[in-house]
Amino acid sequence: MISSSDPKDAIRDKCGVFGIYAPGEDVAKIAYFALHSLQHRGQEGAGIAVSDGIKLRSIRNLGLVTSVFNEQNLSKLKGFIAIGHNRYSTTGGNTKENTQPVILSLKHKVFAVSHNGNIINSEELAKKLTNVKRISTSDTEVLAYTIYYASGEKWNEKIINAAPLFKGAYSIVACSKKRLYAFRDPWGFRPLVLGKLNGYHVVASESCALETIGADFIREVEPGEVIEINRNGIVNLGKIKAAGASKKFCLFEYVYLARPDSLLNQQLVHSVRFRSGQLLAKEAPIKADLVAAIPDSGTSAAIGFASELGIPYGEVLIKNRYIGRTFIQPEQHIRELGVQIKFNVLTKIIAGKRVVLVDDSIVRGTTMKKIVEMLKKSGAREIHLRICSPPVRWPCYFGVDTPNRHDLIAAKKSVAQIREFIKADSLKYLSLSGLIEASAQKQDSLCTACFSGRYPLPVKHNFRKNILENTAS
Q1: Does 208 appear as a known binding residue?
Q2: Which CATH number is correct for 267-442, 2.60.120.10, 3.40.47.10, 3.30.70.100, 3.40.50.2020?
Q3: What pTM, to 2 d.p., does this model score?
């Protein structure tokens, strides 16, 4: 995909996963609409696999959900179990071979896996898979084969025995011919929720997907929990054991990754962002005429910021929501317009005004610099930036595709230097303690590595997205 702004000036979404066990329902179409609501978690590729108890069929390709699936191909996916996936690559490049679900069919055993996260020891695990002809360079295929070769006759036994070998983040929805499985790493880095639809069960990355398909939210899958769903309902298979593991949910899910209408750890994401804006206003007040957001992830925080200081909230940037979701390369003169392709300025609203611009984060700073320049050219008297998270100084190794550390502007510049680079009149970030307070979570239950550099697991700082290319057969 192309982006109208610098493609490196962003923290990329991860992946979205979905699963359903529902005899008598059109599970492929239900999966399609669930994936549509999880599109924000990955836009590189999409796939659905369906089992009728005898055969497992799938459709996987590069592109958005709406371009991969249609009435004709979905009608061929008949069955009572479906799992689906939206992909943004964290290990393995953006190729059709790396799209998911990953499907293994060996010695009459069939297993399909959809994965959200990143296995940081995938290279070591891949080297142990001797005599295996892998077709992808994704860590998900390594995970699937590791499960296949684990001890045990049944898939539930293999999952329980293999899972302790995985280090890193994994929220998994998987299926065999007759059963649906869901399990989550013992640290609980990435979200995974359970729901109920017409008496049957569904699993999804976020609760927003449940609402889209009319399912009721039951609860979150607990960190380390392994679940099997069959004709008798939910069977809890036990907990994954990992030395020293404790809950470390990704704090950045609240900042940017999740949809505002999702529940994470019993907290509505919109409410967390609203509170972060209020706390930011208390930490860094400013006199201004207008508070605005860089849509969309900054909107809830901007409303909170405005309400706390009693400053009017308004829109100053209108987002073209589709220009960044195309595979068509624009002509050179259009490409040179940069952020102007992505945003239109409401010039009459900002002319002569002191504007507070609220956003979720600053990564490389190049896009923010262009936005500030564009607003000032449109007549804004002052631009004050307020960022509703701390400076992002460290890359993520647990399922979010952040740039290398040397590309993160906050890793090499002070806040004053960032402000000077962006040419804003002022720049303030929310403190880490403020963001944790807004999340309403216990500090020791969160992963704050991208802000603090404190990783819950030892990581290789030279980790590369293409790390598995040399281990593929």
Answers
A1: no
A2: 3.40.50.2020
A3: 0.91
